[in-house]
Inverse folding.
């Protein structure tokens, strides 16, 4: 087993508990398959089944009891053994395609297949070792099986055209493999034949065409990998979300809907330099050394960053604030809730183009302001805690007040990075006295080591009006399936319910294309994102709005506090394309933060945020509220005339 080693962290103050958790995780090595002759069948390990604890698909909702069944290299689970027998499978994956990591102390077994992650826990250590042993045996079995068929096909092809029946035989035998044929995949045998290009009697009519057979077999092996990956998609959303009966309406008419977002803001439309090349970064070793650990505590090379920080990322959620302006003018509470839902979804639109780089982690005391006269709001944010990392923000407009404090956790599970936020988003509408609050979906970057990496959001989001129980909104960000069309990806489904739980409105679409509601008096597209600049790939995937966030004009330079992100030297150097210099300055900024913490510790003091304070919300949860001091200080006496933290 491979034990993770230490990597440099952005703080020497990491808790003992966190360090211990990192040491406890081990990555199970990929055992090379045994050598088999093509006519031999690998020895099949026995079935392993029983109840285990499984982490809920949408994190921060604890663990639940599920029945797991491992057979022929395929791990399936459902609620009961009877459900497994009836074929009512909640999720499955092929264990040989997954990275397997274990934690002996907590009896944890994690399987990351790239497009899906299983987090499992056993009741006792005896069951833990049984499952680890069985999973390892099935992983070897599937690799041997694949090698067996692969070698057989190669041997058949190397024999020339007379080996066509042998090739057909191997393809047919492969077609009959249990892991390849599944009614849950909705593929009939005839469709499988057509899909794989299985040799049929017509093959004899085209036997001097050996290339066709070769292409057919190659297509089969490519397809088998895709099907195996697809079979690992979890289907819990259908029986846990309560939205399985909703049919999402197409948003193809979105381009006909006028967009209230201003097109010309007189701000910059490009960056000083193209995005940094990070293909040389050994991200594999960095991530594997920190499997199961919160990556927000791990210092990454600056070339993996985009020239924005999390404080600025929070302000991106207000790009489509006109939806809140509209909501504040709608008398009907159910329709108003629909627009609140559209706004909450719009905050994820940036993610479609931003899976190659990560934002900078703000240092303690770092701030960011954004005054958007074009959109009628002003925004301020501050990093109020370092461990755990916590960013608080507040925005105000004549039509709304928006605030949140976000506790970010980034976890690596072998092939995927999961980004979890535990804070609530809040919006008040002054005209009606409404106070809406909602949680955030989970963000996951799949296949992080592949050029085909992709990002998705998934989970249930509930919007409540704390001032009224007239209606609530429930949305599901649907987990994508690998083997699915592009039109089914990034899907969002939602309903607005009245006080008795009856559906008043249904809406749906995708978080990267638009949201449509056909239950309004006039069916319409509620929202669609602005088009991306043609050169977005050269500039970190930034939209026009994102390119404006780090702009530092002479007017701003004279007004902003020195703690503002736009003065952060490592981020500014990266934006200018000076990667090596940025990396050096990043180390200096992080070291300076550590020195400040040591000085405070010597004095027995703690950092006190300047513009936010800790309090309890109406539900008794700990939150960070805005104290109103930022804009007052900015106006009089001005930050140049006050004492400010020296962060850089």
């Amino acid at each position: 087993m491979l034990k993770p080693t230490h990597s440099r962290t952005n703080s020497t103050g990491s808790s003992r508990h966190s360090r211990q958790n990192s040491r406890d995780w081990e990555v199970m090595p990929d055992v090379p398959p045994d050598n088999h002759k093509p006519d031999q069948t690998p020895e099949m390990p026995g079935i392993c089944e029983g109840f285990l604890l499984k982490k809920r698909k949408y994190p921060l909702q604890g663990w639940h009891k599920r029945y797991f069944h491992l057979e022929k290299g395929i791990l399936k689970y459902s609620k009961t053994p009877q459900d497994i027998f009836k074929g009512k499978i909640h999720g499955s994956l092929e264990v040989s395609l997954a990275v397997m990591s274990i934690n002996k102390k907590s009896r944890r077994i994690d399987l990351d297949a790239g497009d899906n992650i299983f987090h499992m826990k056993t009741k006792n250590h005896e069951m833990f070792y049984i499952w680890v042993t069985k999973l390892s045996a099935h992983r070897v079995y599937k690799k041997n099986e694949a090698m067996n068929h692969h070698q057989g096909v190669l041997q058949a092809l190397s024999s020339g055209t007379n080996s066509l029946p042998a090739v057909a035989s191997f393809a047919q035998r492969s077609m009959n493999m249990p892991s390849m044929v599944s009614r849950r995949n909705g593929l009939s045998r005839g469709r499988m034949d057509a899909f794989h290009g299985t040799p049929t009697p017509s093959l004899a009519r085209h036997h001097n065409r050996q290339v066709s057979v070769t292409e057919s077999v190659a297509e089969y092996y490519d397809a088998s990998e895709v099907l195996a990956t697809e079979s690992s998609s979890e289907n819990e959303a259908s029986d846990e979300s309560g939205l399985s009966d909703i049919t999402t309406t197409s948003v193809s008419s979105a381009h006909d809907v006028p967009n209230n977002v201003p097109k010309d803001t007189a701000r910059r439309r490009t960056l000083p330099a193209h995005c940094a090349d990070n293909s040389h970064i050994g991200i594999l070793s960095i991530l594997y050394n920190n499997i199961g650990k919160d990556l927000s505590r791990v210092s990454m090379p600056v070339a993996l960053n985009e020239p924005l920080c999390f404080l600025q990322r929070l302000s991106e959620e207000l790009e489509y604030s006109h939806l809140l302006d509209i909501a504040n003018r709608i008398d009907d509470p159910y329709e108003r809730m629909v627009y609140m839902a559209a706004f909450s979804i719009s905050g994820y639109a940036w993610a479609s183009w931003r899976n190659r780089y990560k934002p900078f982690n703000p240092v303690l005391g770092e701030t960011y302001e954004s005054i958007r006269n074009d959109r009628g709001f002003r925004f301020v944010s501050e990093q109020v805690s370092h461990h755990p990392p916590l960013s608080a923000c507040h925005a105000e407009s004549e039509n709304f007040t928006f605030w949140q404090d976000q506790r970010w956790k980034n976890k690596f599970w072998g092939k995927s990075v999961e980004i979890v936020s535990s804070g609530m988003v809040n919006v008040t509408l002054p005209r009606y006295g409404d106070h809406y609050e909602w949680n955030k979906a989970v963000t996951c970057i799949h296949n992080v080591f592949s050029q085909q990496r992709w990002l998705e959001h998934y989970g249930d989001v509930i919007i409540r009006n704390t001032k009224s129980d007239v209606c609530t909104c429930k949305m599901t960000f649907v987990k994508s399936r690998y083997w699915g069309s592009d039109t089914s990806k990034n899907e969002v489904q939602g309903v607005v319910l009245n006080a008795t739980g009856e559906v008043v409105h249904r809406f749906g679409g995708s978080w990267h294309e638009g949201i449509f509601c056909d239950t309004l008096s006039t069916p319409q597209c509620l929202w669609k994102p602005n088009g991306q600049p043609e050169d977005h790939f050269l500039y970190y995937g930034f939209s026009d709005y994102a390119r404006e966030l780090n702009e530092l004009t002479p007017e701003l330079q004279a007004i902003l506090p020195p703690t503002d992100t736009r003065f952060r030297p490592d981020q500014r150097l990266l934006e200018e394309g000076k990667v090596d210099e940025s990396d050096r300055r990043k180390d200096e900024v992080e070291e300076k933060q550590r020195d400040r913490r040591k000085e405070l510790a010597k004095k027995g003091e703690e950092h006190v945020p300047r513009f936010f304070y800790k309090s309890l919300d109406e539900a008794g949860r700990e939150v960070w509220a805005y104290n109103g001091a930022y804009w007052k200080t900015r106006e009089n006496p001005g930050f140049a005339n006050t004492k400010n933290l020296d962060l850089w």
